[in-house]
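2024-03-11 09:14:02 INFO queue: dequeued item Dihydrofolate reductase, len=162
2024-03-11 09:14:02 INFO validating residues
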Amino acid sequence: MTITLVAAAAENNALGKDNQMIWRLPDDFKHFKNLTTGHYIIMGRKTLESMNGPLPNRTNIVITRQADYTYEGCIIVNSLMEALAACPQDEEVFIIGGGEIYNQSIAQADKIELTRVLGISPDADAFFPEIDPDKWVKEKQLHHEKDEKHAYEFVFETWVRR
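2024-03-11 09:14:37 INFO prediction written
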C-alpha cells in the first residue's frame, strides 16, 4: 500500500478555521479530484461533515472516536490503523484531512501531494504538520499564478519519503 497525504496549506501550514477552508482554488479542487477519484480516501469526521457528505466515485473511510457514529455512504472506523486495514493493500490510499489525521498519519505516509498557497499566513485552527527535510524530498513542483478564478498563487508540490 502506498499512503499519500493530500492537502492544501498556506505558508504557515494553515489548513482551515472553524471547519472550513480559507481559500477557494478551483484548479486545486480539480487536481484533488484527479488524484483521488477511484481510490480509497481516509478522513476525520470533521472533514466529512465540512464537505456535507462523502465524495463521489471514491470509497470514503471516516475516523471518529464516537462509538455509535454512522454516515450513509461511508465506512466508519475508530482509528487510523482500522482505516488502513480497511483499504486494499496493493493500492494507493489517500489521506485527505484534517489536521489531526495528518498528524497521526505523516509517520506512515510514503508521499505528500501538497498545494502550497503562497502569500498568505492566515489565522487558523487546523494545521498541516511540518515537513522534515531530513525525511522528505521534494520530487516535483508546478507553479500556478493567481488569476480571475484564483485569489492566490500556489504551487503543487510532490514530496516523497527519503
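2024-03-11 09:14:37 INFO annotate: The CA atoms of residues 60 and 74 lie 5 Å apart.
2024-03-11 09:14:38 INFO item closed
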